[in-house]
Amino acid sequence: MRKTMIGRMILLAVCTSMGFWDMAAHAADAGWNGKVEAPHYQERIFPPWQHGANNPTVKKGLNFTVPEVDDLADFHGNLDHPQLVIFVGGNYFFAMAPLVAAFEKKYPELKGKIYYETLPPGILIRQMQQGNTITVGNMTWTVQPDVFAAGLKKVNGLIRQGLVRGPAVPYVTNDLTIMIPKGNPAQIETLRDLGRPGIRLSMPDPRWEGVARQIQISLRKAGGPALERKIYDTKVKNGETILTHIHHRQTPLFLMQGLADAGVTWKSEAIFQEQSGHPISNIPIPAKDNTTAIYAAAVTKGALHPKWAQDWVNFLRSPVALQIFERYGFKPYHDVK
């Protein structure tokens, strides 16, 4: 008995000195209870989606992708001497595969030589401001964009900053929707319902996701400043609103994992999730409360491939490209002047 007690005391002293108890306490606070379990979900619900179609590289070599662990879902193509580099806000990452395929059909000399990133515009801008260098996990790389594409106001802002050469070329518009799990277990019907106590939300962070500005406008339309404060202040503070870094991937994942009840996204993103067979649906937002975004593109300052960059910008307004966009609910942009 005495030896057992002494052994326990020694173990306690060792664990304390090594910080094990602090680690366990921290693990419990973090919600994972200090243990790792094998996944209990189907891997296909985790990015990258589209089964590799969003990688325009011809020779892919060894495919080593582990969903949720080793996964660079918003980086596409081969960095070995690309001939066209596109930085595009992630709101239509799913449309890029058919767009690139159609562009390569028109310009076959570019096949396998296009690289693109589909991060939120605010993060792409930060990458450009950091010398076009980005680090993901243990990998760091630098790539000079030829084209920047995002909301029209964002692109015009970069033109004024000197990061992008004008003019900005608008091509499609998009509307908002309320993304929900299939079956709508929280019985969400309107934007006002998002303010109900207990409704857990996944919402884009205004610091780097341009869609947050449109969402805030729509919240004010539907429920005044009080609804906007409830969603983006009160619920953030009490933990009922999760602010995302890449809402075009995080929100559907949070919904499918039961971590959120709803989230406002672009309508096109909900359509893509439904077309992919994921258990996702959406609640339309009436026109009086909705906010429309105009997407635009421009050639960047210092583009290494200005000819191909301009060809891509022009291509986005072509009938072929617009037909691809329309598959996901986008509408062609029409100048109202």
UniProtKB/TrEMBL annotation:
The UniProt keywords, alphabetically, are: Signal
Residue ranges of the TM segments: none
rRNA processing as a keyword of this entry, yes or no, is: no
Q: Which GO terms fall under molecular function for this chain's record?
A: molybdate ion binding
InterPro entries given in the database record: ModA/WtpA
Q: Which Pfam families match?
A: SBP_bac_11 (PF13531)
Q: Does the keyword Magnesium apply?
A: no
What does the record list as GO biological process?
A: molybdate ion transport
Q: Where is the signal peptide?
A: 1-27
Q: What is this protein called?
A: ABC transporter substrate-binding protein
